[in-house]
Design goal:
The complex is a heterodimer of chains A (956) and B (295). With 956 residues, chain A is α+β, with helices and mostly antiparallel strands. Helices cover 34% and strands 21% of the residues of chain A. The longest helix of chain A is centred in the middle third of the chain and has 25 residues, at 347-371. Chain A is globular. The N and C termini of chain A lie far apart (80 Å). Mean pLDDT of chain A is 85; it is low at 14-23 and 951-956. By secondary structure, chain B is mainly α. Chain B has one domain: MetI-like fold (Orthogonal Bundle), CATH 1.10.3720.10. Helix content of chain B is 73%, strand content 1%. Chain B is built from 14 helices and 2 strands. In chain B, strands 1-2 form a two-stranded antiparallel ribbon. In chain B, α1 (6-33) packs across α14 (265-290), α5 (114-125) packs across α12 (232-238) and α8 (172-182) packs antiparallel against α11 (213-229). Chain B is globular. The two termini of chain B are 30 Å apart. The mean pLDDT of chain B is 84. The chains are: A alpha+beta (956), B mainly alpha (295). Chain A binds chain B through residues 374, 377-378, 445, 450-451, 559, 562-563, 565-566, 584-585, 588-590, 676-678, 727-731, 874, 878, 881-882, 885-886, 889-890, 904, 907, 911, 915, and chain B through 37, 39-42, 58, 60-61, 127-132, 139-140, 142, 145-146, 149, 151-155, 238-246, 260-264.
């Protein structure tokens, strides 16, 4: 009965959504779609649903990225069919195969633009590997070669059944265009939609008990779904001294569409109850829904969308149906249980929020057009005259939000639905705004632009809705006569915690200084997750091959390195050191000169030569780049298309599109706006470099910040703010948030923003893209796009007693194979947010990023360089930032500001030169030339000259 | 019965040892380091008074920004904060017990919650775009039309830092003065009333202040030391060290800058010794004012 009401409410909501067709079409255009959504297209189906036998067509198509293939098939009668594909993945890539599927050359609905064929990821069943400290590590899965038969479904899993296609009887063509990875399709089948049998479970008599451990996953459809270890006494297995994997990690099993399978054996045939020992903490007072499949088939309608209610700590809950425990029939023998997260019940809410968000944004645009940008607070606008239905619109949205909350409340255990509290707040806010529409121009920040606006709350709700984290410790099939395993009580847990506390005083894993003598000591400036993976990689690959034992430790911050150096307890190698730190250490003799190694010239070729500049001193190079940071232009395809603006290629193009943007209260984001009080080099230098300027002349004591070229670049940059009115300060959450709600639809940003948009902006899924940095047009018409790219480095410390071993390690770590392996291992273990932007150009090409984006990033990497970091450069960065701020905020003239800066910079440089013995009483004792790429190039050329690459057919 | 001479020393020993190890010895080491060039990586090199000479003649940032900022900050936050603390303590001493306790707790809490208050409240108030509370309120009142970027504008940073410092200056000194006020013998007020004191102000100057000189001295010293040590506020508000155009750069930030950003520990030690001298001078003045004659 309740379920029926639920569907009724859903239908009502959907019906409310499916208004007149023209309004839908308009909204689709506004959202950047040229095809209707599946929900709209299928609402217009007229043919009957096919109810016959499956019709199969054998084929042997292989599609890889960028290729297309087609298959012909014939439909036996007019009707609606599901289309199923039998396929196998061609690559081991963790990215699923992405296809655009066309029926008879056309896209019947929008979702066919992003069809994903996932692989099955399995482990080989060997015992759980442990790291060197005895903690268990989740095994790395690999893609199984097995074939799967899967129906074409929505890749976002908002619709939980396969698509229905309306086909007339006769011949049809199915075209596949591959966007990423590759697959081999061996059959295409037309099927009738599956109908679930009614629930017919019987009482579970007997005393059979089957316990499945949640972390013993047989197969999963995303490589990052894994087990994890938690020190909680209620979980099994449990150990006080080491971390053992004891539950399925909710952080990895969290998205709609995720599937895990478990194999188990039933000794006795019969009906069993099903109990989960689980934890669900993401949806306050709202369940996460699971589909249960036994042996690949859903046994009845009761196994569809099983509720996993909110549970803040691990609890035992038996699966229910209509108030009684739900039972499943298991015959004797081996079976598979598959769990699939199903969020389809929230789809009406999702679509409602999506629609209301875009409508609010267009109303917001209309109002800014009415009030002309900034609303005069002393004027009241006769909004009703220009937008007569504004009250109805606002009230309508408020009612939609309230209806969604009512819909949600029926699923929450206590009837409060606090996971969706922001919808209630939003409804109130919209109703309040509807009471006085004349104030709307002045109160626009409550509607769409402010941090507490209705649209921000809705966008945040969308993002929160996508979280379906479910942690499972055990899954238990039991009959009425058997009893569930006892869980540790309060006293036992307390006792374990005390034990745990005591062991924490024993040796710490990965703590600096805990390594053994004779081992290579490496400090890594990253979090524990990275360090564990690297240590494992070393123990499995490096140490057996070279015999060198390596201990990796966590390095909390770079200052510890300096202090340890002073105390004589410095490590041999340091990894992931921020790129400005080597320049402080090399002048003080703390780093080892890498050019002393014979094959430096060979290793240096792995990286872009410009990246070596900050680590060069005289004729020596003291560090190598490990990771890079790229700066590209991000833009909203839908907004730019709606405004008919072309994507700008150069800074001049950007200035041309600014009037269009600013007229609608939008703008262009330049990265210095997000940098707070200190504008670092990546923000201030690009335009100076692109204008042909530089920061030092041949000698570092003479800064060329005030040369004509530098001044020109500096002026271009400051004019963006003083004349062209780009925002000077975009405080956190910054560009990412304003890109999402459309107030900054275009801007320049770096890897961090790319990661956020890719992983934390679900509603923008295919609405944005990246392009090259819009640089300054040169005299010959080309566009220069120089940016800085340094991020982290690796170096050897001079106090080391094992320089050759340290160099072997660095050579191994910086090699293309290892960097590529680490990059994909990181992403496949922890998820797509863990991008490893390796500096090794060859390895970067193989990273599991989206190919379209990777092309742009690699093109931008050709313009990647770095500024010299020498004595006193910190002063240069600081004074450049001060000069920049004084021009754009205090209104000082650019040349004056730079003159003051130059005086201070030169003074500081000479102070430093004197401190290190290069300069005394007006005379240079030793030369200090500005480091350039030439130093590294010399070593590379020398190596290439001594080791010419063999031509085909010649003697090596 | 004569106690052994060693027992008092035994009782004092734990405190003396800790004081020696953590306060006296580091201070002596700092004074020693201030005569050297030490970059934390190589051994210190003795250079005599060069650091001090550089401080007074070569360091333009110090003379142009740091010293004036520090003096300005100390003169405003020190005495004004002190007077504010005294005034508030005096007002609270007029109340009955329960409201007094509650209000004292409310007034004292900002000095305890400095870090949290900073991120949660002050940064949000002074955000640079129209969503900041200050910008929003001023726009509503019509005083400004475009949001002011508070944390980049050099003329606003220092006043904001002073306001925040004043807000959090009701610390231990305030509590001490409150305690002192409550312990004044009530008979003195009655005697004064008989002797011809006409109004409350005279009462304060002739009876209250002289009776609580020790607490006033304590409050003054705490106020001075706190004013000179409060370099953190500017850094936390603007998010960068040093603050743009050195607008909120105080001596403590300067020491930080030289010590940890420029690796010139010897010079930083010299600056910190100068700061010590400055604080000592100010507290000397305070002592002269507040020491009772018979001590």
């Amino acid at each position: 009965m309740r379920r029926g009401l639920a569907w009724l409410a859903a239908l009502v909501l959907l019906a409310g959504c499916a208004g007149p067709w023209s309004a839908r079409a308009e909204e689709n255009v506004r959202m950047g779609r040229t095809e209707p959504l599946y929900s709209q297209a299928s609402a217009a189906y007229t043919l009957p649903v096919y109810a016959g036998e499956p019709v199969s067509v054998e084929t042997d198509l292989s599609v890889s990225s960028g290729e297309s293939a087609e298959v012909h098939f014939s439909a036996p009668e007019d009707g609606r069919y599901e289309i199923w594909l039998t396929y196998r993945s061609l690559t081991q890539s963790m990215l699923p195969t992405e296809l655009i599927v066309r029926v008879d050359g056309e896209l019947p609905f929008y979702e066919l633009r992003r069809v994903k064929l996932t692989s099955l990821w399995v482990t080989d069943g060997s015992p759980t590997p442990t790291d060197r400290y005895g903690n268990e590590i989740a095994p790395t899965p690999f893609s199984a070669e097995a074939e799967q038969e899967v129906g074409l479904t929505d890749s976002t899993a908002r619709i939980d059944t396969p698509f229905l296609f309306e086909l007339k009887a006769g011949e049809h063509t199915l075209t596949f265009e591959c966007q990423d990875s590759g697959a081999r399709i061996s059959a295409v089948t037309l099927k009738a939609p599956e109908t679930l049998p009614a629930y017919a479970g019987e009482a579970a008599q007997g005393n059979g008990l089957i316990v499945i451990e949640g972390e013993n996953i047989t197969a999963r459809n995303k490589s990052s779904i894994r087990g994890a270890g938690e020190f909680s006494a209620v979980l099994t297995p449990y150990s006080t001294d080491h971390r053992v994997i004891n539950h399925l990690a909710g952080a990895s099993f969290d998205t709609a569409g995720d599937r895990v399978s478990y194999t188990f054996t039933a000794e006795q045939a019969g009906w069993y109850n099903l109990d989960f020992h689980y934890k669900q903490t993401v949806k306050a007072d709202f369940p996460v829904f699971l589909d249960l499949l036994i042996d690949g088939v859903m046994p009845s309608e009761a196994a569809h969308q099983v509720r996993m209610d909110y549970a803040t700590s691990f609890t035992d809950r038996t699966v229910q149906w209509e108030g009684k425990p739900q039972t499943f029939y298991l015959s004797e023998g081996e079976h598979t249980l598959t769990l699939r997260i199903n969020a389809a019940l929230l789809t009406p809410v999702y679509e409602m929020i999506d629609r209301v968000l875009s409508e609010i944004n267009s109303l917001s645009l209309e109002i800014t057009r009415l009030s002309g940008g900034t609303a005069d607070p002393y004027r009241s606008y006769n909004v009703r005259e220009y937008i007569p239905d504004i009250e109805d619109r606002l009230n309508g949205w408020g009612d939609d939000c309230a209806a969604a909350v009512d819909y949600i409340k029926q699923f929450s255990a206590s009837g409060s639905g606090s996971a969706f509290a922001s919808l209630t707040l939003c409804a109130d806010q919209l109703h309040r705004l509807a009471e006085k529409p004349e104030d709307l121009p002045r109160r626009l920040s409550e509607l769409s632009t402010g941090s507490n606006s209705a649209s921000r709350m809705l966008a945040q709700q969308l993002q929160d809705m996508a979280n379906n984290d479910l942690s499972i410790d055990q899954i238990i099939f039991y009959q009425d006569g058997a009893s569930l395993p006892k869980r540790a009580g309060f006293l036992a847990s307390a006792g374990r915690s005390v034990e745990r506390f005591a062991t924490s005083f024993a040796s710490q894993d990965y703590a600096a200084g805990s390594g053994k003598n004779g081992h290579l000591q490496v400090w890594m400036g990253r979090s524990r997750q990275y360090v564990e993976l690297v240590q494992n990689l070393i123990d499995v690959e490096f140490t057996p091959a070279t015999g060198i034992e390596v201990d990796i430790s966590l390095m909390p911050d770079a200052n510890k390195l300096v202090l340890a150096n002073a105390a004589g307890t410095a490590p041999d190698v340091v990894l992931s050191l921020q790129y400005v730190v080597p320049s402080y250490l090399n002048i003080r003799g703390a780093l080892y000169d890498l050019t002393q190694f014979e094959d430096f010239g060979e290793v240096a070729q792995r990286f872009s030569p410009g990246l070596f500049i900050p680590y060069t001193l005289g004729d020596g190079v003291y560090a190598m780049p490990e990771t890079v940071n790229f700066w590209v232009q991000f833009y909203r395809k839908d907004i730019l298309d709606a405004l008919s603006i072309a994507v700008p290629d150069s800074l001049e193009d950007v200035k041309l599109i600014l009037p269009e943007l600013q007229r609608r209260n939008m703008n262009f984001y330049f990265p210095t706006a997000g940098m707070g009080g200190m504008k670092v080099f990546p923000g201030t230098l690009p335009l100076i470099l692109q204008a042909g300027g530089s920061i030092y002349a041949d000698f570092i004591g003479d800064t060329t910040l005030d040369s004509d070229a530098s001044l020109k670049g500096f002026r271009e940059m400051t004019e963006l703010f003083t004349v062209y009115n780009m925002p000077t300060d975009v405080p956190s959450p910054g560009f990412y948030q304003q890109f999402r709600d459309g107030t900054l639809p275009i801007g320049i940003a770096d890897l961090a923003t790319y990661n956020l948009l890719l992983n934390a902006a679900p509603e923008l899924d295919s609405l944005w893209d990246i392009s090259l940095f819009p640089g300054l047009t040169q005299e010959d018409g080309s566009v220069a796009r120089w940016t800085t790219g340094g991020a982290e480095t690796m170096a050897i410390l001079s106090q080391t007693e094992m320089p050759n071993e340290a160099w072997e390690f660095l050579k191994w770590w910086s090699s293309a194979e290892v960097q590529a392996e680490f990059g994909s291992l990181l992403q496949s273990t922890y998820g797509s947010e863990y991008i490893w932007p390796t500096a090794n150009t060859e390895a970067f090409e193989t990273l599991p990023l989206r190919s379209a984006h990777k092309k742009v990033i690699m093109a931008q990497m050709e313009w990647m360089t770095e500024a010299p970091w020498v004595l006193g450069t910190y002063m240069l960065e600081r004074e450049l930032s001060n000069a920049f701020i004084s021009v754009i905020v205090d209104g000082v003239d650019a040349r004056r500001a730079l003159d003051t800066a130059v005086k201070r910079i030169n003074r500081e440089t000479f102070r430093k030169l004197e401190e290190f013995g290069y300069y005394k009483n007006g005379e240079m004792l030793k030369p200090f030339p500005t480091p350039t790429m030439d130093v590294v190039r010399r070593y590379i050329d020398a190596w290439n000259a001594a080791h010419p690459v063999a031509e085909e057919g010649e003697q090596p | 019965m004569r106690t052994k001479k060693s027992t008092p020393y035994l009782f004092l020993a734990p405190y003396l040892i800790l004081f020696l190890v953590f306060i006296v010895i580091p201070t002596v080491m700092a004074i020693g380091l201030s005569f050297t060039n030490y970059n934390a990586v190589q051994a210190p090199q003795f250079v005599g008074l060069t650091n001090y000479i550089n401080l007074l003649t070569q360091d333009t940032i110090f003379l142009q920004y740091v010293l004036p900022n520090t003096i300005l900050f100390a003169v405003i936050v020190g005495p004004v904060g002190y007077l504010l603390a005294f005034f508030l303590a005096w007002s609270l001493s007029q109340l009955t017990r329960l409201p007094r306790t509650i209000l004292a707790l409310i007034i004292y809490s900002p000095s305890m919650t400095m870090g949290v208050a900073m991120t949660v409240m002050w940064r949000v108030v002074f955000l640079g775009d129209q969503s900041g509370i200050a910008n929003y309120a001023l726009t509503q009142l019509g005083i400004i039309t475009e949001p002011i970027v508070w944390m980049l504008n050099t003329q606003y940073i220092m006043p904001i830092v002073i306001i925040v410092a004043l807000w959090s200056s009701m610390g231990v000194g305030f509590l001490a003065m409150l305690a002192g006020l409550l312990n004044i013998n009530a008979e003195l007020y009655e005697a004064g009333a008989i002797d011809g004191i006409r109004n409350r102000i005279q009462e304060v100057f002739y009876i209250t202040i002289p009776s609580m000189k020790p607490q006033m001295l304590f409050g003054a010293v705490m106020s001075v030391v706190g004013a000179f040590q409060a370099g953190n506020i500017g850094v936390m508000l603007t998010g960068s060290n040093p603050t743009p155009q050195y607008a909120a750069q105080l001596m403590v930030n300067h020491i930080d800058d030289y010590g940890f950003t420029r690796y010139e520990m010897g010079y930083a030690a010299a600056v910190s010794v100068s700061l010590l001298g400055l604080i000592y001078a100010f507290s000397f003045v305070a002592r002269k004012l507040f020491t009772a004659k018979d001590e």
